[in-house]
Amino acid sequence: MLKSDSHAAVAGVDAVALKPSEHDLECIPDLEDAVETVVVDYEGREHLPEFDALTALAGDRTVRVTAPVRADGFDPLGDDSLADAIPPELGRVFVAGHSQGGMAAPRIADRHGGVAGIVSIDGPADPGMDADDLGFLRYSIEPDGDLTEEQEAELEAKRETFRRVADGDYDLDEEILGKPGRWHDSVDEVTTAETAAELDAAVFVAKAGRADPETQPEIAEMHEQHYEEWCEHDLGEDSTVEFYEDVDHYMQEGYDPSGMAALYFPGNAAEYVVTDVAEWVHDVADD
């Protein structure tokens, strides 16, 4: 890693990544010409770039800036005011999110305006819930869906809770499915794919499809349905919807049948998914 107090030249690499919380950009020595790209990873609002510092760092190189849109309380769209603080001199802006972040990304892009692209990692095309299509729930209890009598009762209780959410049968301050009622109300207002299709921005959608079709048929069917829902929308030029049948919600490969426990022990996303996203972003940015 390049240190801010280092006097050694960096050579033989195509790119270098820096964290402003660990490095003073103005104190970084000149980078060798071999380094064509610098990625600056901003961890929060307090580390947003000073454009003059980035200009000095860039020279003839490409500087790519990443910054998180952090969730604020129970707002499903997060605190997207950070997007408004990005220096206008920066070039092409991309909004990327995973799951609920992927659900929120088109709306954040719409609020910000002038966005070049949107990346939705396993975000839903339509976050609405169908109370009559809850077959996937049994696999949240047992990966193979084979439940005991006691577990069947637990499943029915879960179904009833999901039905209440689908019907809007809750108080705004009531906590249901781990979120207050007003959170669920706000999700109902989100039209992810529809909003994405209306924007003048390219969209990359990565949908997970890992499931054992023999032991988890409802999950396999749900994955395909979610993929097809995105495909039904006329997204902008250079957009793509990719289906990754061997990865789970966290874009990780693993053993089938997969269960909810895997979501609590995340590892690395599949390299080919990361590569696909990175290459797409570069292609759109360079157009």
UniProtKB/TrEMBL annotation:
It comes from the Archaea. InterPro entries: AB_hydrolase_Est10, AB_hydrolase_fold, DUF7388. The keyword Iron-sulfur does not apply. Keywords: Hydrolase. GO terms for molecular function: carboxylic ester hydrolase activity. Pfam families: DUF7388. PANTHER family: ESTERASE ESTD (PTHR43265). This is Alpha/beta fold hydrolase. It comes from Halobacterium bonnevillei.
